[in-house]
Amino acid sequence: MKLKTLLAAAVVLLACSSLNADSLPMKSVNKASEVIDAAVAAHGGAEAIGNLKSLVQKSEFVNIATGQSRKPGPPYDRAQSSNVNAIDLENEVFFTHNAGTGGGFDFDNGTLINGEDSWQLDYRADTAAPLLEPDFDTQSGPFIRVTPALLMKQLQARRGQSNWLGVAEIDGRKHDVITLVMEVGPALGLYIDQETHMLTRMERVLPPFGQVEYHFNDYTTIDGIAFNRKFELFVNGDENLVIDIQRTELNVPLNQYTSVPANLRKVAAIAPDPMSTNEVKEGVFLIGGNGTYAMFVEMQDYVVAVGGTQTVEASIGEMRKQIANKPIRYGVLTHHHNDHVPGAAAYAAEGATIVTFRENEAVVRAAAGDDNATLEFVEDRMTISDGSRTVELYNIGPTPHAENMLIAFLPQEGVIFEADHFPQPPNGVIPPAVPATVAFAKALDELDLDYQVIIGAHSPRVGSAADLKSALGQKSTAP
Ligand SMILES: [Zn+2]
User: Can you give the pTM of this predicted structure?
Assistant: First the structure.
């Protein structure tokens, strides 16, 4: 909700209660203000917090890949990354750099928000792409939300919009719960210990993901301000992220972070990616937008759809403009990851047979939201043919990304559709291969498929065998 809307709501509330000092909203705001004063004092004091102008933190992250592990169920895979965040609050400059591995990917990238001079940095591809609509509040929000001192600054500045919600007990200790509404995003519920006045927990509800819970642990004092050394994030009760904060620097210049390294090639900005339909070969359509796509293959009497991302429902709508009256007989899901099964619901609604692996049945049925959805299980391969056109499905798993992974191959057209193994940017430079790409290329070799075109679940780009070769031929340095 925007600040203005909230202010308007507050004005209405105040008007209704005739500005009575004992009215519920007034009591709530006043009580929140008392809690904020005590919390700011406990975290270093109004002066020290007020004088905090810039902050640099270096951390080690452990990501727990809930819904994104190699297997469908727990225990989930853990991936390590290192992170640098640097913020200059007065000049609205923010820099973040993340390097690590996970899910068969190596990544080493950054974002610099500095007014007109804002960039998306890829240290693996050695490229820097300008950010056309840099947004300091949105980009710096995740760092602010995991940093108590920065949350205290937010509370100081926005106390008029904070409410006291009540008292809750955590680990046998009483906490006051107050709200904080930042410039962007849903309201946060902050738990302030009634004795120590320290921030120990925070919560927010983020549809459609559910409840996100922040735990701030192991405080220490640096230059008079309290900083936590440990942080944990839970999503719907499942551990999702553990941060080990290694270094904290206050009020230092950010010069070393605010220029694009000389060795990075400046490339074109990443353009907006609206819904589009691309007829890759006659009767073979790649349809999607905003980074997710599905392939539709027109057979004599029906359609075969491949891909399970959230675009499927909208993409089916677009497909109907090309193929008006043939039913979707098969809806093929590439793998069990939580961003590759939402399409199951759209396929179930179409009355299609959902093609997946037996191991993924529970995940797929949950995503389909329909216990009576028709599922067909693939083991190693499956062929769908109407006598004139053929769609071949192959399990290329296990790969570093998933235990079981389907790709589709159209032998007559030489087209391959894949998910999450050959990341192709919408335009420009193909980055160096990640371990998942190496496994994908090896599988294509072993299957001895004769292909010319590679399209994917996350790119509108129509790639080629040469593009895959170029990815494999580049240096692949682990961060
Ligand atoms: Zn995946």
Answer: 0.86
